[in-house]
Amino acid sequence: MKNNIIFEYYDKNLHYDLNELFDDLKNDVWRKAVLDGIEDGKPVIVVSDGGRICGYAGPLSVQSSMRGYFEGIGVHSAYRHHGIGKVLFNVLCESLKEKGAGFMSLFTGETNPARNIYESAGFKIVRVWSDMQKEI
């Protein structure tokens, strides 16, 4: 990891290795959402290390309810445990506020390590739900 970490909006002329990031994250749903969002002109925040994308948050939008919405957030495994995810989430929250969002909400798992980041940013648990299954 270099020390040239920058948090900014994605620019195809400045940033590279977006697909490599999603290969590392092993999440094709996020990959599709981000690539579609970029194509539709929606902003995506990236963490770049000398232009190489090592994290992302987005695509960003403000819904008619004034809810700030983002499809996903992730940091490349080689860049974890350095506080990048926490800073990225705070940049995400501030960006949505600047875009006119009045609030944010999200779903997360009980054991998701990112839950600590959300709570440190002031998010509170307002509802707990169950994932149910039946063998048939």
If you had to describe this structure to a student in words, what would you say it looks like?
- The structure is a single chain.
- The chain has about 140 residues and is α+β, with helices and mostly antiparallel strands.
- The chain has one domain (about 5-120): 3-Layer(aba) Sandwich (Aminopeptidase).
- Helices cover about 30% and strands about 25% of the residues.
- It has four helices and five strands, in the order βααβββαβα.
- The protein has helices at about 20-25, 30-40, 85-100, 115-120, and strands at about 5-10, 45-50, 50-60, 65-75, 105.
- It has a five-stranded mixed β-sheet, with helices on both faces.
- β4 (about 65-75), α3 (about 85-100) and β5 form a beta-alpha-beta unit.
- The longest helix is centred in the C-terminal third of the chain and has 15 residues, at about 85-100.
- The chain is globular, with a radius of gyration of 15 Å.
- The N and C termini lie far apart (about 50 Å).
- The model has no long low-confidence stretch (mean pLDDT about 95).
In short:
The chain has 136 residues and is α+β, with helices and mostly antiparallel strands. The protein is 30% helix and 24% strand. The protein has helices spanning 18-25, 28-39, 84-98, 115-120; strands spanning 5-9, 45-49, 52-62, 67-75, 103-104.
